[in-house]
Write a sequence for this structure.
């Protein structure tokens, strides 16, 4: 009887031994642990704290007077004309810069897929490096260059001054096309050459091949880039998990949130503004996902329909 019990125990121990997939999963979690810990401590907790603060009148200079006020901060947003103007400004910034950025990134990706182009690696690196350089540095360099141009050229010639900020928006949009360019370029590289060859044999020119083959085939990459650019146009993750020391942002709404939080020290209202902006971003994102079924090509759906 004892031998049988020992045999059964040994069988259970063998069954309890983790499989290879389980071991790989544990190793993967071990490597992900630093990121997961950082996400919880530096992202998730500040976001949840912002939700709590949005329901209070938290003043950073007098936290001891904080009290729960419910939805008053959100009601205050609808009465704040400056906040509404800032939100509309962010929408205008999205409509102005995102199409320009995507068109240029798409054009560059199409150019780089050409077999005639030489030294692609170096050119790709140079294009992507622009998105690595901090935009704040480029902002001040660009404004400084405009000031010197006005003093040395425009003022002596009695020309009207340059509207620097109006020129800055499209310039900054083009400065950060690196990620979108690489995404679309990679998508174009994955399109089968046989499809292009068959279309060319049938008499389709370059423009027709680009419009009727390239664009539909890389539409998932275009959709992904559009969603990422939407987030960037509204200032990225604005739920108070980060902030700009110099209160600088090309997104008017994020600039207004930072001013409310750091200059007015009104963390409660700033948190409510951040959540309002997040709600608008989510609404636009849901709209994009709903519209994706009409213009985004998903090969796996065709495979399921065939089955």
């Amino acid at each position: 009887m004892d031998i049988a019990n020992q045999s059964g125990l040994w069988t259970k121990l063998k069954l309890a031994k983790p499989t290879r997939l389980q071991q790989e999963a544990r190793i993967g979690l071990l490597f992900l642990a630093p990121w997961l810990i950082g996400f919880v401590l530096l992202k998730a907790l500040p976001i949840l704290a912002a939700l709590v603060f949005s329901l209070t009148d938290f003043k950073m200079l007098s936290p001891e007077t904080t009290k729960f006020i419910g939805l008053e901060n959100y009601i205050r947003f609808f009465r704040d004309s400056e906040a509404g103007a800032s939100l509309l400004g962010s929408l205008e910034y999205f409509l102005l810069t995102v199409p320009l950025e995507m068109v240029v990134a798409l054009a560059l990706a199409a150019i780089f897929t050409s077999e005639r182009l030489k030294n692609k690696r170096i050119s790709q690196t140079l294009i992507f490096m622009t998105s690595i350089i901090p935009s704040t540095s480029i902002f001040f360099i660009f404004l400084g260059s405009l000031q010197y141009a006005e003093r040395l050229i425009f003022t002596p010639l009695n020309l009207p001054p340059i509207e620097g900020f109006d020129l800055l928006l499209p310039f900054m949009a083009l400065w950060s096309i690196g990620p979108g360019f690489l995404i679309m370029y990679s998508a174009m590289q994955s399109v089968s050459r046989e499809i292009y060859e068959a279309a060319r044999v049938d008499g389709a020119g370059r423009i027709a091949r680009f419009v009727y083959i390239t664009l539909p085939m890389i539409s998932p990459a275009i959709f992904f880039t559009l969603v990422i650019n939407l987030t960037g146009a509204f200032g990225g993750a604005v739920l108070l998990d980060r902030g700009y020391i110099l209160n600088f942002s090309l997104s008017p709404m994020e600039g207004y949130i930072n001013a409310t939080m750091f200059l007015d020290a009104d963390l409660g209202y700033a948190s409510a503004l951040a959540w309002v902006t997040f709600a608008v971003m989510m609404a636009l994102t849901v709209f994009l996902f709903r519209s994706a079924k009409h213009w985004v090509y998903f090969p796996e759906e065709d495979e399921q329909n065939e089955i």
About this structure: Confidence is low (pLDDT under 50) at residues 241-248.
